[in-house]
Amino acid sequence: MENKEYAKRVYKELTDNILFFWLRHSKDVENGGFLGGMNSAGEPEENAPKGLILNSRILWTFASVYLFEKKGEYLEMADRAFQYFDKYFYDAENGGYFWMLDYTGQPQDTDKEIYGQAFSIYALAEYYKATKNVKILQKAIDLFNLIEEKCHDDANTGYYERFSRDWKLTGDSRLSGSRDAKTKSMNSHLHILEAFANFYRIWKDQKLLFRLKEQIRIFLDFIINQETFHFILFFDEEWKPQSDLISFGHDIEGSWLLYEAAEVAGDEELLGKVKDVSVKMATACLNEGLDDDSGMLYEANPENAIDSDKHWWPQAEAAVGFLNAYQLTGDMRFYEASVNSWLFIEDYIADRKYGEWVWRVTKDRKSINKSPKISAWKAPYHNSRACIEIINRLKTLDK
Fold it and tell me: How do residues 61-100 score in pLDDT, each as one tens digit?
């Protein structure tokens, strides 16, 4: 497929399906903000709680698509998202953002998860880029300073995962299911990395730059398995591995996010190291993570796949990650893998009946109809971002 045809198809999917769905069907007209849940057939889930991840990702998405294509309806959605996010999720007493609200906007889970705080910085930075409102920038700065004070592990580097409303370290890490408060996860640190890179684009603070580089080194030194070039998913406080599971979606997503972060950091030596690792991670995903139909499998152990379903977000990240690897190497295998990942999305993931994307299909490409269309974890972030990344990268290749 030629670059222009690829970009044309991706743009059509972004505007006519993904964004159209969220613009027309996601607003909560009764309670404000956005619906907390919707089933696979597009029916709102009555009284569904409203999650920080969903709402921060909606804010990031519509700020980002407004920067991509300055349509007023995109900025209106970003404004709506910010107003609800700032009014209801923000903890004015203790700082930071609540994990979950009930459908009316009342706090339901007041814990402060570092994963959620990272996405809040990520979204605020993007919204500032769209609005140039210095009050938004200050909110991001204040949140960064707060998580530095409350969450950073000064002894071992990295960040602790979960805190109470008043920032006391708690157990039961949400992402890992561990009862140990000092368990650390790849996933949280990947999105801290992503958030700090986006934030540093607009706020050239030296401590932020130091932490961004620290995050990159944590991935190089601890999180990436230097034999397999897969991410290690969970760790104890001192970065000792606590898991041998493989998440192909995170691997391919991380391969391009790491390179992006190193570019933003502007350290040539670090960038060289990351480039090598990024290509090796993409190669491992190409060789091990793709099924015969070009769909990316979900999860494996060192011996074989243990979840061979094909979820929506790893397919989106595969299309971007393989295109990034092609840009770094010129190896056509990666370009073809990116195109084939996109074709898999068009054929099996994009929902032509109810709109947006289905959550997942089985190994033999049958849709799982009970999976939600909107939920605490199902947002327009992965697929919208993939579309923007692919289009912009194809433009760069054409130049």
Answer: 999 999 999 999 999 999 999 999 999 999 999 999 999 9
- In this predicted structure, what is the pLDDT of residue 125? 98
Do residues 52 and 100 touch, judged by C-beta distance below 8 A? Answer: yes
> Which pLDDT belongs to residue 271?
97
Dist CA 207 CA 15 (whole Å): 38
72 CA to centre of own chain:
25
For tokens 């994307």, name the residue. 357
Question: What pLDDT score was predicted for residue 305?
Answer: 85
Determine contact, residues 309/368, Cβ cutoff 8 Å.
Answer: yes
Nearest to 115 by CA among 64, 176, 69: 176
**Is the whole-model pTM more than 0.85?**
yes
Contact status, residue 141 vs residue 203, Cβ threshold 8 Å: yes
CB contact set of 209 (below 8 Å; sequence gap of 6+): 200, 265
Q: How many residues does the chain have?
A: 399
357: tokens are 């994307």
What is the CB neighbour count within 10 angstroms for residue 300?
19
Phi, psi of 363 (to 5 degrees): -55, -35
Residue 162's DSSP bridge partners are 113
Cα angle 163, 165, 169; round to 5: 25
Distance CA 322, CA 19 (A): 24
Run of H or E including 307: strand 305-307
* DSSP string for 77-117: HHHHHHHHIIIIIB-TTT-SB-SEE-TTS-EEE--EEHHHH
Please say whether the dihedral angle defined by the alpha carbons of residues 160, 165, 168 and 172, taken in this order, is positive or negative: negative
44: left (phi over 0), alpha (psi -120 to 50) or beta: beta
Reduce the DSSP state of residue 160 to 3 states and report it. Answer: coil
User: 33 with 81: CB under 8 angstroms?
Assistant: yes
Q: Hey, what are 337's tokens?
A: 């893998």
Bridge partners (DSSP) of residue 296 are 290
Which regions in the chain score pLDDT beneath 50?
none
Taking the C-alpha atoms of residue 291 and residue 318, their distance in angstroms, rounded to an integer, is: 12
Question: In angstroms, how far is the first alpha carbon of the chain from the final one?
Answer: 17
